[in-house]
Amino acid sequence: MLVVFAHSNTGSTVATVHRSDGVVLQLPGFDRKYRVPHDLAHFATERSLGMAGGVFGSIAGGGVFSNMRVLSGKQRHDAAARSKRLLDANKRTLTMAEVLAGVVHRVVEDDEAAKAPVLCRNAWGVIDPGEFPWADEQIAQAIRDLVEMSVDWEATGTVRVTWPESLVAPMPAPQGVKRGRRGRS
Q1: Strand 13-18 relative to strand 24-28: parallel, antiparallel, unpaired?
Q2: Who has the most CB within 10 Å: 18, 72, 127, 143?
Q3: Secondary structure of the chain as H, E, C letters
Q4: What does the alpha-carbon distance between residue 12 and residue 28 come to, in Å, rounded to a whole number?
Q5: What CA–CA distance (Å, rounded) separates 82 from 121?
Q6: Phi, psi dihedral angles at 61 (to 5 degrees)
Q7: With 90 as the cut, is the pLDDT of residue 154 above it?
Protein backbone atom coordinates (compact mmCIF):
# COMPACT_ATOMS: atom_id res chain seq x y z
CA MET A 1 0.00 0.00 0.00
CA LEU A 2 1.41 3.35 -1.04
CA VAL A 3 0.95 6.26 1.38
CA VAL A 4 1.75 9.83 0.34
CA PHE A 5 1.98 12.42 3.10
CA ALA A 6 1.67 16.05 1.96
CA HIS A 7 0.59 19.46 3.20
CA SER A 8 -3.14 20.08 3.03
CA ASN A 9 -4.78 23.37 2.15
CA THR A 10 -5.45 23.92 5.89
CA GLY A 11 -1.75 23.89 6.71
CA SER A 12 -1.92 20.48 8.34
CA THR A 13 -0.96 17.12 6.86
CA VAL A 14 -2.98 14.85 4.65
CA ALA A 15 -2.15 11.24 3.84
CA THR A 16 -3.36 9.84 0.54
CA VAL A 17 -3.59 6.08 0.83
CA HIS A 18 -3.53 3.87 -2.27
CA ARG A 19 -4.81 0.47 -1.16
CA SER A 20 -4.09 -2.72 -3.08
CA ASP A 21 -7.82 -3.12 -3.87
CA GLY A 22 -7.68 0.06 -5.99
CA VAL A 23 -9.43 2.29 -3.47
CA VAL A 24 -7.73 5.63 -2.81
CA LEU A 25 -8.49 7.25 0.53
CA GLN A 26 -7.61 10.51 2.20
CA LEU A 27 -6.66 10.65 5.88
CA PRO A 28 -6.49 14.21 7.24
CA GLY A 29 -4.03 15.14 9.96
CA PHE A 30 -4.57 17.59 12.78
CA ASP A 31 -1.02 18.56 13.56
CA ARG A 32 -0.22 22.09 12.43
CA LYS A 33 1.63 22.86 15.66
CA TYR A 34 4.23 20.11 15.17
CA ARG A 35 7.35 20.09 13.03
CA VAL A 36 6.89 16.37 12.37
CA PRO A 37 3.42 15.14 11.33
CA HIS A 38 1.82 12.83 13.89
CA ASP A 39 0.63 10.39 11.22
CA LEU A 40 4.25 9.94 10.10
CA ALA A 41 4.98 8.88 13.69
CA HIS A 42 2.17 6.33 13.44
CA PHE A 43 3.58 4.96 10.21
CA ALA A 44 7.16 4.69 11.53
CA THR A 45 6.14 3.25 14.90
CA GLU A 46 3.59 0.74 13.63
CA ARG A 47 5.90 -0.51 10.87
CA SER A 48 8.93 -0.85 13.17
CA LEU A 49 6.93 -2.61 15.88
CA GLY A 50 5.12 -4.87 13.39
CA MET A 51 1.66 -3.63 14.36
CA ALA A 52 -0.65 -5.00 11.66
CA GLY A 53 -3.64 -3.93 13.74
CA GLY A 54 -2.57 -0.28 14.01
CA VAL A 55 -3.83 2.61 11.90
CA PHE A 56 -2.05 1.77 8.65
CA GLY A 57 -2.40 -2.02 8.84
CA SER A 58 -6.11 -1.56 9.54
CA ILE A 59 -6.50 0.77 6.56
CA ALA A 60 -4.60 -1.69 4.35
CA GLY A 61 -6.94 -4.45 5.52
CA GLY A 62 -10.09 -2.53 4.59
CA GLY A 63 -10.66 -0.25 7.57
CA VAL A 64 -11.90 3.28 6.98
CA PHE A 65 -11.87 5.70 9.90
CA SER A 66 -14.72 8.17 10.28
CA ASN A 67 -12.54 11.17 9.35
CA MET A 68 -11.40 9.56 6.08
CA ARG A 69 -12.94 9.99 2.67
CA VAL A 70 -12.82 7.90 -0.48
CA LEU A 71 -11.14 9.75 -3.35
CA SER A 72 -11.45 7.07 -6.04
CA GLY A 73 -11.92 3.39 -6.67
CA LYS A 74 -14.85 1.08 -6.10
CA GLN A 75 -15.40 -0.22 -2.60
CA ARG A 76 -17.01 -3.56 -1.87
CA HIS A 77 -20.77 -3.60 -1.36
CA ASP A 78 -20.19 -4.50 2.31
CA ALA A 79 -17.23 -2.16 2.89
CA ALA A 80 -18.80 -0.29 5.82
CA ALA A 81 -19.67 -3.48 7.73
CA ARG A 82 -16.24 -4.99 7.06
CA SER A 83 -14.51 -1.78 8.16
CA LYS A 84 -16.47 -1.70 11.42
CA ARG A 85 -15.70 -5.37 12.09
CA LEU A 86 -11.98 -4.84 11.44
CA LEU A 87 -11.68 -1.65 13.49
CA ASP A 88 -13.60 -3.23 16.38
CA ALA A 89 -11.28 -6.26 16.30
CA ASN A 90 -8.22 -3.99 16.30
CA LYS A 91 -9.39 -1.60 19.02
CA ARG A 92 -6.74 -2.64 21.54
CA THR A 93 -3.88 -2.47 19.03
CA LEU A 94 -5.12 0.90 17.76
CA THR A 95 -4.96 2.21 21.33
CA MET A 96 -1.43 0.84 21.76
CA ALA A 97 -0.41 2.38 18.43
CA GLU A 98 -1.77 5.78 19.46
CA VAL A 99 0.09 5.75 22.77
CA LEU A 100 3.41 4.46 21.43
CA ALA A 101 3.35 6.64 18.30
CA GLY A 102 2.72 9.58 20.62
CA VAL A 103 5.86 8.75 22.59
CA VAL A 104 7.98 8.28 19.46
CA HIS A 105 6.58 11.51 18.03
CA ARG A 106 7.38 13.43 21.20
CA VAL A 107 10.96 12.19 21.55
CA VAL A 108 11.69 13.05 17.91
CA GLU A 109 10.08 16.49 18.26
CA ASP A 110 12.08 17.16 21.43
CA ASP A 111 15.28 15.49 20.16
CA GLU A 112 15.37 13.14 23.17
CA ALA A 113 15.64 9.73 21.50
CA ALA A 114 17.64 8.30 24.40
CA LYS A 115 14.54 8.53 26.62
CA ALA A 116 12.35 6.55 24.21
CA PRO A 117 12.71 3.01 25.62
CA VAL A 118 11.84 4.08 29.18
CA LEU A 119 8.99 6.34 28.03
CA CYS A 120 7.55 3.59 25.81
CA ARG A 121 7.68 1.07 28.65
CA ASN A 122 6.00 3.53 31.00
CA ALA A 123 3.28 4.27 28.45
CA TRP A 124 2.80 0.55 27.84
CA GLY A 125 2.38 -0.01 31.59
CA VAL A 126 -0.65 2.27 31.60
CA ILE A 127 -2.33 0.08 28.96
CA ASP A 128 -1.09 -3.36 29.93
CA PRO A 129 0.54 -4.51 33.17
CA GLY A 130 2.30 -7.33 31.31
CA GLU A 131 5.81 -7.43 29.94
CA PHE A 132 6.68 -4.90 27.22
CA PRO A 133 6.61 -6.97 23.99
CA TRP A 134 9.15 -5.03 21.88
CA ALA A 135 12.93 -4.75 21.95
CA ASP A 136 14.75 -1.46 22.44
CA GLU A 137 16.12 -1.86 18.90
CA GLN A 138 12.58 -1.80 17.48
CA ILE A 139 11.90 1.48 19.29
CA ALA A 140 15.23 2.83 18.04
CA GLN A 141 14.29 1.78 14.49
CA ALA A 142 10.97 3.63 14.75
CA ILE A 143 12.84 6.75 15.82
CA ARG A 144 15.42 6.41 13.01
CA ASP A 145 12.63 5.93 10.46
CA LEU A 146 10.69 8.92 11.75
CA VAL A 147 13.79 11.12 11.77
CA GLU A 148 14.56 10.07 8.18
CA MET A 149 10.99 10.75 7.04
CA SER A 150 10.94 14.10 8.85
CA VAL A 151 14.09 15.19 6.99
CA ASP A 152 12.33 14.42 3.70
CA TRP A 153 9.20 16.16 4.99
CA GLU A 154 11.06 19.34 5.89
CA ALA A 155 13.00 19.34 2.61
CA THR A 156 10.15 18.62 0.18
CA GLY A 157 6.86 18.77 2.07
CA THR A 158 6.02 15.29 0.78
CA VAL A 159 6.87 11.78 1.94
CA ARG A 160 6.09 8.65 -0.11
CA VAL A 161 6.24 5.36 1.78
CA THR A 162 5.06 1.82 1.24
CA TRP A 163 3.23 -0.16 3.89
CA PRO A 164 4.45 -3.80 3.91
CA GLU A 165 2.02 -6.49 2.74
CA SER A 166 3.11 -8.59 5.72
CA LEU A 167 1.51 -6.01 8.05
CA VAL A 168 -1.98 -5.90 6.54
CA ALA A 169 -4.58 -6.56 9.24
CA PRO A 170 -6.56 -9.73 8.54
CA MET A 171 -10.31 -9.37 8.19
CA PRO A 172 -12.04 -11.12 11.10
CA ALA A 173 -14.82 -13.55 10.26
CA PRO A 174 -18.34 -12.21 10.67
CA GLN A 175 -20.02 -13.22 13.91
CA GLY A 176 -23.37 -14.95 14.02
CA VAL A 177 -23.49 -15.93 10.35
CA LYS A 178 -24.61 -19.50 9.89
CA ARG A 179 -23.36 -21.25 6.83
CA GLY A 180 -24.34 -24.52 5.23
CA ARG A 181 -27.56 -26.39 4.64
CA ARG A 182 -30.64 -26.08 6.75
CA GLY A 183 -31.63 -29.16 8.68
CA ARG A 184 -34.66 -31.12 7.46
CA SER A 185 -37.58 -31.79 9.72
Answers
A1: antiparallel
A2: 143
A3: CEEEEEECCCCCEEEEEECCCCCEEEEECCCCCCCCCHHHHHHHHHHHHCCCCCHHHHHHCCCCCCCCEEEECCCCCCHHHHHHHHHHHCHHHHHHHHHHHHHHHHHHHCCCHHHHHHHHHHHHHHHCCCCCCCCHHHHHHHHHHHHHHHHHHHHHCEEEEECCHHHCCCCCCCCCCCCCCCCCC
A4: 8
A5: 33
A6: -80, -5
A7: yes
